[in-house]
Design brief:
It is built from 13 helices and ten strands. With 331 residues, the chain is an alpha+beta fold. The protein has two domains: 2-90; 108-328, Bira Bifunctional Protein, Domain 2 (BirA Bifunctional Protein, domain 2, 2-Layer Sandwich). α2 (7-17) packs parallel to α5 (50-90) and α3 packs antiparallel against α5. The structure holds phenylalanine.
Amino acid sequence: MSDLENLANEAEEASFAASTLENLEQVQAQFLGKKSKLVLAKKALGTLPAEDRANAGKEINEIKGQIEQLISSRKAALQESEWSSKFNKERMDLTERLGPIDRGHLHLITQARDELEDVFIGMGYSVVEGPEVETAWYNFEALNIPDWHPARGNFDTIFVDLGEPEEVMLRSHTSPVQIRTMESQEPPIYIVAPGRTFRTDSADATHLPAFNQIEGLVIDKGITMGDLAGTIDSFVHAFFGEEVKSRLRPSYFPFTEPSAEFDISRSDGSWLELGGCGMVHPNVLRNCNIDPEVWQGFAFGFGIDRLVSMRYQLDDIRELVVNDARFLRQF
Ligand code: PHE
C-alpha cells in the first residue's frame, strides 16, 4: 500500500511530461493498464487480512479515480493544442494570391467608342442614345426617305415580323437618333449618338450584320459646310493623330444636302473611306418642327467596327465578335 501512495504523484508527473496523445496513451497503460501497479495491487487484495481488505480496496479505487481524472484532463489539453497547431498549419490564407490577377479589359469596340465619345465631349458635344428597334418614321420617313424612295434599298433593313405593313425594324443606321434629339431638344444642338445598327449583310471579312455606328448632329445658327469640314478634320486629328488628313467627296444621302463621304489619309498616300456626312436637309428640320430659315446644321455618321478594324489592320472584321480571348487579350 505504501507503494501506491506515491502513485498519483508519479502519474501526474508522467502525464504532464507526455507531450503528445501517443505518449499519454503509454502513460495511461503504465498506470491503469493490465500490468499496472494498481491492477496488480487489486489482484493482491485477496492476500490481505480480511479486516484490511475493504480499506485497501477503497484506497486503490480512489487512487485509480484520481489517475483517471488526471489523464483525462491532460488528454483534453493535448487534444486542444494538437488541434490548434494542426489548424495553424492547415489554415488557408484567404488573402493569398497565386500570381497577378488576370483582370481583363474593355472590348476593342467599347474602347474605341469611349475614346470617340471623349473626343467629341472635348469639342463640346453631349452623348445621347436611342432605341435599337425603330419605326419606319424614325429610321426612314422623318429622314426624308419616303417608302417609294430607292435609297431605302441601300439600307438592307431587317424588319420585325409584325405582319404588313412593315413598320417596325432594327435600326439600319444611327441617324434616327437625329430625329429623336431634334424632337426632344431645342436647338442649338451638339450631340453624338453611338450605338448598334443592323443590316441584312451576311458576315464576311468586311461586313457584320450587327455593327456599331456613331452619329453626329449639330444644329445652330449660321452653320456651314466649312464647319462640317473643320469638325471632321479636328476629330480625325484628335483620334488618329495630327499627321492624318481628311477630305470630303461629293455623295448622296436623302437626309443631307449637300452630302459627302469623308476619307482619311493613310501613310502610303492613299485615302480610306470612313463615313457619310452633309448639311441637314431642310425637310428633315421641318419634320422636327425646326425652321430651316433660322437654323442650319450638319450631320455625320460612320462605323466604329470599321474604324477599329482599320486602326489595328485586322484581316477579318469578324474577329471583333467571335470573342476569342487570345485575340482580344492583345489589345
Ligand atoms: N446614316 C448614314 C449611313 O448609315 C451615314 C450618314 C449619317 C450620312 C449622317 C450623312 C449624315 O450610311
